[in-house]
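## tool: complex_structure
## caller: assistant
## args:
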Amino acid sequence: DTGVSQNPRHKITKRGQNVTFRCDPISEHNRLYWYRQTLGQGPEFLTYFQNEAQLEKSRLLSDRFSAERPKGSFSTLEIQRTEQGDSAMYLCASRRGVDNEQFFGPGTRLTVL
Amino acid sequence: TQLLEQSPQFLSIQEGENLTVYCNSSSVFSSLQWYRQEPGEGPVLLVTVVTGGEVKKLKRLTFQFGDARKDSSLHITAAQPGDTGLYLCAGELRDFGNEKLTFGTGTRLTIIP
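## result:
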């Protein structure tokens, strides 16, 4: 499968714990995006990378959130001291260039108890 | 902040009927995409429209981009149960390095056999 992959698919954690999600983009896609989708809503942009550089961060990305793409390939999204309001589907997307479509992964569903 | 509003939010119709979903904004977008999302999966791109007034057809689906590039519609002819899903419009701006997708609120479509 050469699509975008995300791990884990599901994560249940207790409030206050830290969690980390991983996204593996399609090979040779230099742009990688993170979105968050809550129940009944469309996805909301969190941040994006061009290669290893993080170029834009949404106001939604509080200081408890950090994203990295150390070698310009896979990316991780970490949430520290999780809160119940962090419960959502976290989606990753990648694309080859600015004029190409974004391909989405299956998402990681986070539930904070 | 760009806001895309979709209507209706929910739509349930009988198989064989026609339907139209609307996506409206006060902002002008460089391009607009329509996605379909199945439960527990990421959005899958259906079409991208770029030019004001553009009409694209994908089998029984017809997509239109408004002349002013602020709104779009999706028309489905002779709906089938396989069309059931969450339909999302998303607009993209290409200025000052802005590459994020701004998603609409979504239309949850149910086709009753």
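## assistant note: The interface with chain B takes residues 4, 31, 33, 35, 40-45, 48, 55-56, 58, 91, 93, 98, 101-107, 109 of chain A (CB under 8 Å). Chain A has no helices and eleven strands. Handing back to user.
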